[in-house]
Fold this protein.
Amino acid sequence: MQDFAQAQHSGLIGGQPVGPSQVAEARKTRREVGFPVGWLVAPATLWLLVFLVLPLISIIVFSFWTSAKGGLVPDLTLQYYAGYFYNEGFFDQEHRNFLTLSVFIRTLGSTFYFTAVVMVLCLIVGYPIAYFLAMQVQSFKWQMALFLVCMVPFWTSYLIRAVAWLPMLGRRGLLNSLLINLDIVDKPVSFLLYSEFGYTMALVQIYVVLCVGPIFFSLSKIDPAILEAARDMGATPFQIFREIIGPLSLPGVAIGMIFIFVILMGEFATAVVVYGGKTSTTGTVILNYYAIANYPFAAVNALMLMLSMMIGVVVILRIVDIRKEL
Amino acid sequence: MARWTPERRRKAWVKTGFSVYYMIFVVFIYGPMIAMFILSFQGRRGGTSFPMRGTSLYWWGKLIEPSTVGDLQGAMMRSLMLALIVMVITALFSTMLAMAFRKKFYGSGLLFYTVMAGLMVPGILLSLGLATLMRQMGIPAAWWSSALGVHVVWTLPFGFLVMMAVFNRFDSSLEEAARDMGADEWTVFKEITLPLITPGIVAAGLFGFTLSYDEFARTTLLAGAENTLPLDINASMTQRIRPTLFALGTASTVFSLAMIGLFLAIYTVLYRRSR
């Protein structure tokens, strides 16, 4: 085919590149257009090295150092790891078994548990919204406007949005008066503020917008012709959802879930504001040990957090391949 | 007027159901904030929850009094300055990176994942790592150095993704035409590329500004001696909570909303012009 094209056109306008070597040469010169890549990427790369890679490496390094009066000294030790797993349990010295978990692992576990619960709730609450925006709203202008309404809270402060839950949840808060007015309860209930329930609800409210966006984008990429074809062949709405819409929206679901997962695992501000600091997340544990200048132990906690997050993200990526989406 | 077949009726019901759910959702995500707005106008003797005991600007007045809440004006100015610097750097870096990614180059995959890692690594880890490192090296933390650095790490992936999307739909033949007519790289960029991608740059800037202005976790250990606004808000949580806090939250949110509106307006104007 190529030979044919060459035979047709060679020599039409002056000298055309003939033969593979000359073609490669011609391509090489074409590739020189644009600013040099090195200069374009150098500043950002340097910035990321200093402010992203270096801090992460130093966490790993400092977790092996020893805490001393003036700060840290580079005496390599594993004592902080031992403290994390061994001292308070995990390996139960009396009974010589591995059943009791140390308080730090339990905190990590409860952080993980809360994160999982909030992720599922966000998906349940947010998916229908994304579905509505992508599938039910026909006009593009309306779609964008309604989507923007959902996205605006993302650009405002999550700390303030946590503060905003205080007048809702208290004993004389809005939710209690609502419950009383609807005759669901006759006395104010106290389980709302500084409780797991209130905390979970606030987290869902604050972070649900993070999964609406990605799910909306992958839903709106679905070609309507496929859905029409399925309908013409007699598929029920449920079948269409199970066979087409569901699978095709999975990448968006995965991105949204990863996003919520990583932010919630490191979360500590909402826990303090809405939960009154009664609970500890791994984030608050890290801050507490930083405050008492036990840097290596804070680093060990941070490392374990990072490790569990990596495992979580890898698991999500194993279930869904999102590379097509990026 | 088409007949109301069962199929159409069913569809109408579904759509109504979803619309109602959407409205409940909007009430859910905005409700608490609106309650806070209203309570910031609480009367002098009212508390932090309903009912309102009259309306007043008493708690708003307390915001301006210098004695009650630390150095609030200063904190606000610092947050604003920081957000503006982060905005400029984010817009600049994400444009440069996205331009580089139009071609394949050595290490592009690694760089891509490093940029995205800024999105994945929790703020508390970067705060801890950098704060400890700087302590160890004897460099004092400050909002314009360490906090700025980590803020850009957080905002860059958003701006980068926006600019990647912009260049994905970019028609390179316009640049080629200019080059064929003998324009040098700077002229091509200034006359052709830049006007076409300005809306994207504004959008990248929006992410830089708003995300930095509100950032708390990444500033916690890195702001040094002088607080930014979110740190001040968090500090006032440890004292007795008063409606002043709601006034502060309202003021800050209204400012954020105004900035979002401004950015979107600029974006719309530029987008129309670039067509």
